C-alpha cells in the first residue's frame, strides 16, 4: 500500500471532524444560471448523441462525471480525482423541484447510468427534494420496479433544459471539485511535515517577550499555531521550487494559508526548509499575523478579560439554599435578572470592549491598525477588520458559553432528578397515603404550591398546566434576548457607515443542545403534572366536608329528632374524624419539583370538624336546656295553679283537688330530671363547659320539688280564710237571686197582655231578651245550689222558674215565628226574582204555617192572642198563590221577548225580567193575568222544543255530510289512476 493511499484513508476517516475553508467563489446572478428553455425557438436536445457531442465540445466526458461515486482506492500522490461530483453541484442552477415536477411525473429524460459511459433515454418516476436525487428507470424496463435506481441531478438531463447551461453547471462542479482536492492534498502534505525542535518556532527573544505577557498554557497554544503557520508557508515555497515533484503531482498552493489549523503537532518530518529563508518568512509573518504590535496584543487581552466576565454572568436567578418560591415570584425574579444581564450585554459590555480597543488601537495611529480609516476597500484589506473579526468571534464564543452555562444551571435547578417522575404512567392514581410521597427528589424542590378547595374540586394556587410553557418561555426569551447585542464595528470605526442590524450571534433556539434541554424540561414537568393531579384528586373526597354549613347540618340533625345517646355517638364520630385528619393529612408534601403546602386546607378541614363537634355539643346543650326549661315550666305551672287567687268556692275546691295529685306529679318530674341529669353527664364527658345560665337552670330544676312542697303548706292556710269570705258572699247572692225572680215574674205578667200585630218586630226583640234573662236566672240558680252543697247548706227552690219558663214559651214562639216569617216574605218579594230559591220559599211557608197551627190549641182560652195567631196564619196562606206565579216567571225558557209580551198583556210600562223583584210584578197586576202568563210559558216551551228539533236535524245533516266526505276521500286514496 502506497503512502498516498494510507494518507487518503486517514483523511476519509477524519473528514467529518475538520472543515476545509474554501476560497470565495464568484457566483453569477440567478438569471444567468437559469437553464429552463422557456421558448420553442431555442434549441432543444432530442437525442442522447447530441447531448454527448455538446458536452465533449466543452471538455466534459462521462468519466469526469462518474468518477468518485464509487468506493475506489484513489492515490493522493496521483492526479486522479477522489471526491464525488454531486457534492459540488451549484443548486442555483436548479429549476426542477419536487413541487414542480411532482404532478407531471413520470417524464422522459436522458441519464448517465453507471457502469455505462453513454447517455441514454430513461423514465423519471420520483424525486427526493432533500438531497436532489431522482429515481429513474430504463425505458426498456419501465415496468420492472427492481431496475429503477436513484441518481444525482448532474447525471440527469431533461429535454426542456438549456443544454449550454447544463454544460456550464457540470463544468462549474468539476472546477470546484478540482480546487477542493488540491486543498486537501495541500493540507495533507502539511500534516505529514514535521519540524526539528524550534526550527519553525518563535525565536528566543520573541519567546521571552511573550512569556512575560501570558501564561505557559497560552504560550504553548500560540507556539503551536505559529509553527503550523510557518509549516504551511514552507510547503507553499517548496511546491513552487520543487519542479520535479510538481510535474508528477499537480498540487496548487491555496490562495490563503489561513485555513483550519490542525490541533495535533506533527511528530515526523519528511521535508525541511533551508534556514536562509527565515528572514523572508519573518517578513511574511509580520504582514499576516495580528500580534505584530503590542497594543493589539494588549487590546485582545482586555477583550478576553471582558469575555471571561461575561462567561461568569448568570441569565437566571437560581436560589440554592432558599425555600421554594411560587411560579409568579420565580418568573418575576428571572425576568428581572435576564433584563439586567441583557442590558449589560447590549450596553456595558459593548461599551467597555469598544473602549479598551479604542484606547490601545488609537495609539498606533495610521497604518494596518488605523481605526480612523475612511475608505471601505482599505478597511477590508486592513488588519483592523481581521482584528475586529477575531474580537467578534471571541465575544460570540463568550456569549454562547454564557447561554449554555446559564441554561444548563437553569435545567439543573428545575429538573431535580426524580426517577419516579420520569417513569410515571399517564394513568397513575394516588392509591397510597397522603403523607408519604413516592416522588421525593434528590434535591430540594424549586416551586411551592398551595392546595385549595374549590366549589367543584380541589385546585392549586398556581395552575400546574402553566409550568411547562412558562418555564420554557423564560428560557427561550433569554436566548432570544442574547442575540440583541450589537457588534463593536459601528462604535469602534466611527468614520465608516455600517448597517443597523449587525448583531452578535449566540445559541439558536433550534440548536441541538437547546432542543435537548427544552425537551428535557418540558417532558419532566409534563410528567410531574400526572402525580400532581392525582394527589389533588384524592382531596375531592373532602369537598362535602369543606362546603358543609354547620347551621344546615344542625338543622338536619334536629329534623331527624335523634336521642341524646345518638347525638353522643355523632360527637364521638366527629372527634375521631378530626383526629384522623390530624394523622392522615400532612402539613406539606413534595412531589417532584413541587413543594405542596397542604396546611391551609388541612387546618380548614380540622376546623370544620371542630365546628361540627361544637355545634353538636351546643345543640345537645340547647336540647337539654329545653328539657330542663320544660321541667321548670311544669314546676312553675304547679305553683301558679296552686297560688291562683280564688274567685269562688268552686275554685278553692278545684285547687285543693289539684293539690292532692301534686306529690305524684312531683315524683314523675323528679324522674324526668334524673334522666336529663344523665344527659348533662354526656357534656361533662366531652369537657364541655356549660353556660352560666344553663348551669343555674339545672340546679334550679333539681331544687324545685322542695319549693313546691313549701308552697303547698302556705296555700292551704290561705284557703281557710278564703272559705269564710265566700260563705258570707253566698248569703248575699241568695237574697239577690230571689229579688230578681220576683221582678221578672211581675214583668212577664204585664208583658203577656200585649197583642198588637203592628208591633210584631218590637215585641219579638223584647220576647227574646226576656227569654235569655229567664235562662240566665235558671243557670245562676244551679250555680247557687252547687255552692250550697259545698257550704253544707240546704238547696234553693227553682220550681217557680221552671213553671214561668213553660208558660212563657208559647208566647215567645208566637212573636218570634211571626217576626221571622215577615222578614222572609220581605226578602222573597224585594230581592231579584232570579236570586229567589223557590224551594226555600216553599219550606219557609210550610214551616211558618205548621208552627202557627200548633199554637192555636195553646191560646184557646185567650181570645186576643188567638186572633193574633189566626191573623198570621191567614197572612201565610195569602202568600201561597204567589209561589205558583213565581214558578211560572222563573221558567228557564222565557226570553226578553216573552217578558215584553207579558208586559203588553198586563198593560205595564215597566221593563219586566227576572232581574227585578217580585214586588214589581205584583204592582203591575201579574196576579190578575195568570192565564196569559201560563200561555206565554207554554209558547216558550214549544219554541224551545222546535229549536231543539232544528238543532238535532242540523247535527244529523252535518254528520251525514262528514260521512260522505270521508267516504269520498277514502275512494280517492284507493284510486290508482291518479
Polypeptide structure, described:
The two termini are 105 Å apart. The protein is mainly alpha-helical and 978 residues long. Helix 15 packs antiparallel against helix 17 and helix 21 runs antiparallel to helix 23. The longest helix is centred in the last third of the chain and has 60 residues, at 692-751. It is elongated and about 185 Å long. It has helices at residues 3-13, 48-57, 62-66, 98-101, 163-191, 204-211, 216-241, 243-248, 278-288, 294-311, 327-361, 376-381, 383-414, 419-422, 466-481, 489-492, 512-538, 543-547, 550-560, 564-584, 599-642, 649-660, 662-685, 692-751, 760-790, 799-830, 838-855, 863-889, 896-905, 918-923, 930-974, and strands at residues 107-112, 119-128, 133-138, 149-152, 156-157, 447-453, 458-460, 588-591, 594-597. It contains 31 helices and nine strands. This is Dynein heavy chain linker domain-containing protein. It holds the Pfam family DHC_N2.
Taken as a percent bin, the fraction of beta residues is: under 5%
**Rg from Cα:** 65 Å
Which descriptor suits the 3D outline? Answer: elongated
Distance between the termini: 105 Å
Average pLDDT for all residues:
78
Helix/strand structural class: mainly alpha
Write a concise keyword list for the protein shown above.
9 strands; 4-stranded mixed β-sheet; 978 residues; single chain; mainly alpha; 5-stranded antiparallel β-sheet; 5% strand
Amino acid at each position: 500500500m502506497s503512502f498516498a493511499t494510507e494518507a487518503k484513508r486517514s483523511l476519509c476517516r477524519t473528514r467529518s471532524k475538520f472543515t476545509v475553508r474554501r476560497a470565495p467563489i464568484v457566483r453569477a446572478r440567478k438569471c444567468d444560471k437559469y437553464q429552463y428553455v422557456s421558448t420553442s425557438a431555442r434549441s432543444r436536445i432530442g437525442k442522447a448523441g447530441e447531448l454527448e457531442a455538446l458536452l465533449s465540445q466543452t471538455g466534459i466526458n462521462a468519466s469526469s462525471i462518474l468518477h468518485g461515486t464509487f468506493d475506489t482506492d484513489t492515490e493522493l500522490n496521483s492526479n486522479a480525482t477522489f471526491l464525488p461530483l454531486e457534492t459540488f453541484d451549484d443548486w442555483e442552477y436548479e429549476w426542477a423541484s419536487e413541487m414542480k415536477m411532482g404532478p407531471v411525473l413520470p417524464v422522459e429524460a436522458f441519464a448517465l447510468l453507471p457502469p455505462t459511459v453513454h447517455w441514454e433515454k430513461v423514465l423519471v418516476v420520483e424525486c427526493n427534494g432533500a438531497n436532489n436525487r431522482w429515481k429513474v428507470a430504463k425505458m426498456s424496463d419501465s415496468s420492472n420496479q427492481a431496475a429503477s435506481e436513484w441518481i444525482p441531478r448532474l447525471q440527469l438531463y431533461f429535454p426542456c433544459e438549456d443544454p449550454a447551461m447544463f454544460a456550464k453547471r457540470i463544468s462549474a462542479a468539476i472546477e470546484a471539485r478540482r480546487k477542493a482536492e488540491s486543498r486537501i492534498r495541500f493540507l495533507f502534505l502539511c500534516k505529514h511535515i514535521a519540524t526539528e525542535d524550534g526550527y519553525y518556532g518563535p525565536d528566543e527573544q520573541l519567546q521571552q517577550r511573550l512569556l512575560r505577557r501570558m501564561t505557559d498554557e497560552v504560550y504553548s497554544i500560540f507556539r503551536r499555531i505559529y509553527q503550523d503557520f510557518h509549516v504551511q508557508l514552507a510547503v507553499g515555497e517548496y511546491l513552487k521550487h520543487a519542479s520535479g515533484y510538481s510535474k508528477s503531482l499537480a498540487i496548487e498552493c491555496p490562495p490563503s494559508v489561513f485555513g483550519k489549523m490542525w490541533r495535533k503537532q506533527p511528530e515526523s518530518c519528511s521535508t525541511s526548509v533551508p534556514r536562509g529563508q527565515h528572514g523572508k518568512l519573518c517578513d511574511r509573518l509580520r504582514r499576516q499575523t495580528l500580534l505584530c504590535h503590542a497594543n493589539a496584543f494588549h487590546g485582545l487581552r482586555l477583550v478576553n478579560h471582558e469575555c471571561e466576565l461575561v462567561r461568569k454572568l448568570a441569565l437566571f436567578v437560581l436560589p440554592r439554599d432558599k425555600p421554594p418560591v411560587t411560579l409568579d415570584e420565580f418568573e418575576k425574579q428571572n425576568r428581572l435578572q435576564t433584563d439586567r444581564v441583557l442590558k449589560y450585554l447590549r450596553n456595558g459590555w459593548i461599551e467597555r470592549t469598544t473602549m479598551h480597543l479604542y484606547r490601545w488601537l488609537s495609539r498606533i495611529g495610521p497604518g494596518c491598525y488605523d481605526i480612523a480609516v475612511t475608505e471601505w476597500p482599505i478597511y477590508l484589506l486592513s488588519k483592523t477588520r481581521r482584528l475586529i473579526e477575531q474580537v467578534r468571534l471571541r465575544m460570540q464564543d463568550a456569549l454562547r458559553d454564557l447561554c449554555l452555562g446559564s441554561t444548563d444551571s437553569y435545567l439543573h435547578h428545575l429538573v431535580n432528578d426524580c426517577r419516579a417522575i420520569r417513569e410515571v404512567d399517564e394513568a397513575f392514581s394516588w392509591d397510597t397515603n397522603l403523607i408519604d410521597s413516592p416522588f421525593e427528589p434528590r434535591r430540594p424542590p424549586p416551586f411551592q404550591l398551595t392546595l385549595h378547595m374549590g366549589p367543584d374540586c380541589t385546585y392549586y394556587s398556581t395552575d400546574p398546566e402553566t409550568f411547562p410553557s412558562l418555564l420554557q418561555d423564560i428560557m427561550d426569551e433569554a436566548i432570544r434576548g442574547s442575540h440583541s447585542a450589537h457588534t463593536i464595528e459601528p462604535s469602534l470605526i466611527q468614520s465608516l457607515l455600517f448597517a443597523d442590524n449587525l448583531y452578535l450571534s449566540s445559541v439558536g433556539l433550534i440548536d441541538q443542545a437547546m432542543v435537548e434541554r427544552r425537551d428535557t424540561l418540558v417532558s419532566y414537568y409534563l410528567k410531574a403534572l400526572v402525580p400532581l393531579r392525582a394527589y389533588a384528586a384524592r382531596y375531592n373526597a373532602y369537598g362535602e366536608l369543606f362546603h358543609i354549613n354547620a347551621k344546615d347540618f344542625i338543622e338536619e340533625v334536629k329534623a331527624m329528632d335523634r336521642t341524646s345517646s345518638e347525638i353522643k355517638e355523632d360527637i364521638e364520630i366527629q372527634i375521631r374524624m378530626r383526629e384522623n385528619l390530624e394523622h392522615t393529612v400532612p402539613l406539606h408534601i413534595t412531589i417532584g419539583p413541587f413543594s405542596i403546602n397542604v396546611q391551609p386546607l388541612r387546618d380548614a378541614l380540622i376546623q370544620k370538624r371542630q365546628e361540627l363537634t361544637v355545634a353538636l355539643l351546643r345543640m345537645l346543650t340547647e336540647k337539654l336546656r329545653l328539657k330542663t326549661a320544660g321541667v321548670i315550666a311544669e314546676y312553675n305551672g304547679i305553683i301558679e295553679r296552686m297560688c291562683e287567687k280564688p274567685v269562688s268556692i268552686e275554685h278553692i275546691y278545684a285547687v285543693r283537688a289539684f293539690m292532692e295529685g301534686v306529690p305524684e306529679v312531683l315524683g314523675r318530674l323528679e324522674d324526668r330530671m334524673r334522666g336529663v341529669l344523665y344527659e348533662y353527664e354526656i357534656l361533662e364527658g366531652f369537657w364541655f363547659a356549660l353556660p352560666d345560665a344553663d348551669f343555674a337552670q339545672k340546679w334550679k330544676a333539681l331544687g324545685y320539688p322542695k319549693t313546691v312542697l313549701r308552697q303547698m303548706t302556705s296555700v292551704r292556710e290561705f284557703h281557710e280564710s278564703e272559705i269564710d269570705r265566700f260563705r258570707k258572699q253566698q248569703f248575699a247572692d241568695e237574697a239577690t237571686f230571689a229579688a230578681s225572680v220576683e221582678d221578672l215574674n211581675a214583668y212577664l205578667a204585664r208583658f203577656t197582655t200585649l197583642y198588637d200585630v203592628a208591633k210584631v218586630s218590637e215585641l219579638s226583640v223584647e220576647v227574646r231578651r226576656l227569654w235569655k234573662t229567664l235562662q240566665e236566672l235558671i243557670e245562676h240558680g244551679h250555680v247557687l245550689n252547687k255552692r250550697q252543697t259545698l257550704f253544707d247548706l240546704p238547696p234553693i227552690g227553682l220550681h217557680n222558674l221552671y213553671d214561668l219558663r213553660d208558660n212563657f214559651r208559647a208566647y215567645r214562639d208566637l212573636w218570634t215565628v211571626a217576626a221571622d216569617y215577615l222578614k222572609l216574605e220581605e226578602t222573597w218579594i224585594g230581592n231579584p226574582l232570579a236570586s229567589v230559591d223557590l224551594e226555600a220559599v216553599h219550606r219557609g211557608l210550610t214551616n211558618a204555617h205548621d208552627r202557627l197551627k200548633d199554637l192555636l190549641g195553646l191560646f184557646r182560652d185567650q181570645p186576643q192572642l188567638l186572633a193574633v195567631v189566626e191573623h198570621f196564619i191567614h197572612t201565610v196562606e195569602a202568600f201561597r198563590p204567589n209561589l205558583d206565579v213565581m214558578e211560572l216567571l222563573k221558567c228557564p225558557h222565557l226570553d226578553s221577548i216573552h217578558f215584553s209580551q207579558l208586559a203588553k198583556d198586563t198593560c205595564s210600562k215597566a221593563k219586566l225580567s227576572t232581574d227585578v223583584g217580585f214586588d214589581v210584578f205584583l204592582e203591575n197586576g201579574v196576579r190578575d193575568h195568570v192565564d196569559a202568563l201560563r200561555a206565554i210559558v207554554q209558547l216558550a216551551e214549544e219554541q224551545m222544543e222546535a229549536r231543539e228539533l232544528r238543532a238535532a236535524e242540523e247535527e244529523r245533516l252535518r254528520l251525514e255530510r262528514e260521512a260522505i266526505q270521508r267516504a269520498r276521500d277514502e275512494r280517492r286514496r284507493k284510486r290508482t289512476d291518479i
